[in-house]
Design brief:
The structure is a single chain. It is built from three helices and six strands. The chain has helices at about 35-45, 55-65, 80-100, and strands at about 1-5, 20-25, 50, 70-75, 105, 110-115. The model has no long low-confidence stretch (mean pLDDT about 95). Strand 5 (about 105) and strand 6 form a beta hairpin. The longest helix has 19 residues, at about 80-100. It is an alpha/beta fold.
Length: about 120
């Protein structure tokens, strides 16, 4: 699987997707200033799953089916250590769910499947 981790999440989350092609927006040409439209275009062209906290992607997915697949992170204001722990515990399940689903919402107590 291929992933893009958006600017509002730390680049260190890439380690939880070992064996997959993962990039953080900080590595793109415009870095963390890369527009949502550019991220959507890259996601569709390369079949990359966008992992983000940005609710604008919720609206683009529900209206235009962009990006290719979406993981919306709704974990509140967790500390970095807590976010890393969440991904460490749940990355394998995320990958499994993304085999057949297109839109997931990560919540503190569950992973909600929207599509």
């Amino acid at each position: 699987m291929k992933f893009i981790i958006d600017a509002h999440l730390p680049p260190s989350l890439t380690v939880y997707f070992e064996g997959h092609d993962v990039i953080h927006t900080s590595l793109l040409e415009d870095g963390n200033f890369t527009t949502d439209g550019t991220i959507n275009d890259l996601s569709i062209a390369q079949k990359r799953i966008v992992i983000t906290k940005d609710t604008d992607f919720y609206y683009s997915f529900t209206t235009k089916r962009e990006p290719y697949k979406l993981v919306l992170v709704k974990l509140g204001n967790m500390r970095l250590k807590e976010i890393k722990g969440y991904f460490e515990r749940n990355a394998a399940q995320l990958i499994e769910l993304l085999e057949t689903h297109y839109f997931l919402i990560l919540e503190p107590e569950r992973i909600r499947i929207l599509e």
